[in-house]
Design goal:
The protein has 210 residues and is α+β, with helices and mostly antiparallel strands. The chain has a single domain (60-209), classed as 3-Layer(aba) Sandwich (Protein Transport Mog1p, Chain A). Helices cover 35% and strands 30% of the residues. It contains six helices and nine strands. It has helices at 5-22, 31-53, 70-74, 127-135, 189-197, 201-209; strands at 84-85, 89-95, 98-109, 112-120, 139-140, 144-151, 154-161, 166-173, 177-184. Strands 1, 2, 3, 4, 5, 6, 7, 8 and 9 form a nine-stranded antiparallel β-sheet that branches. It starts with a helix and ends with a helix.
Length: 210
């Protein structure tokens, strides 16, 4: 049976979109997690469409570049003052030169929870395009805030649910490494910004440029 690379890459893209936009939503059953899951599905469809339309359906990536090892990504996970850190979680995959790797860690202070994830997708085009779309959404109402924002030299986005006091800050480093900080159970947006400030984005950028 012929190996179908496009389907495998699409599955990776769907996983990545869901992970970045809804990490941990499977652990909750409230309306906020439902909204996050719906957003993930919409973004995932955009990713899949973009990948299907690139070069006759083949995913684009820089084959000369390798995703950083998950151990290397884990070395950039910071310590957060006042929070107790759980053990980091690491994963990686390589399918015919298309790679992704990830490292994440959860931090708790009472009921408050912050999770930092660092993910490298080896320049998969379409996936980056989907996040670029997310960064260009600027919307605010009484329930939520979603806007693009720059963090140091790197583009990113802020997604915040005001009444639930939970949300996400994401940053794209060197157009390939995603740093995602999520918070729930009473954290503040300032808490997420402070946590992101502990991540050495320039160090990640240097590592990804080697």
């Amino acid at each position: 049976m012929k190996y179908d690379l496009k389907k495998t890459l699409s599955a990776v893209a769907l996983f990545g979109a869901a992970l970045v936009f809804a990490v941990g939503c499977g652990k909750k059953n409230d309306s906020a997690s439902t909204d996050s899951a719906a957003t993930a599905n919409n973004i995932a469809k955009t990713v899949s469409d973009a990948m299907n339309g690139a070069s006759g359906g083949a995913a684009q990536h820089k084959s000369s570049a390798h995703a950083l090892p998950s151990d290397k990504l884990a070395s950039f996970l910071p310590q957060l003052s006042g929070f107790t850190a759980k053990e980091p979680e690491k994963a990686s995959m390589n399918v015919q030169g298309t790679e992704w790797s990830s490292a994440s860690q959860e931090f708790n202070n009472g009921d408050k929870s912050i999770k930092i994830s660092i993910l490298d997708y080896n320049y998969i085009a379409g996936l980056t395009a989907a996040y670029t779309m997310a960064m260009n959404i600027n919307m605010e109402n009484g329930e939520e805030l979603h806007k693009g924002e720059k963090f140091g030299n790197y583009p990113g986005w802020v997604e915040w649910k005001k009444k639930a006091n939970e949300g996400t800050i994401g940053v794209i480093v060197n157009d390939r490494v995603f740093v995602v900080v999520e918070g729930r159970n009473g954290v503040s947006l300032d808490d997420l910004r402070a946590a992101l400030g502990k991540v050495d984005l320039d160090g990640i950028g240097k590592a990804a440029s080697v």
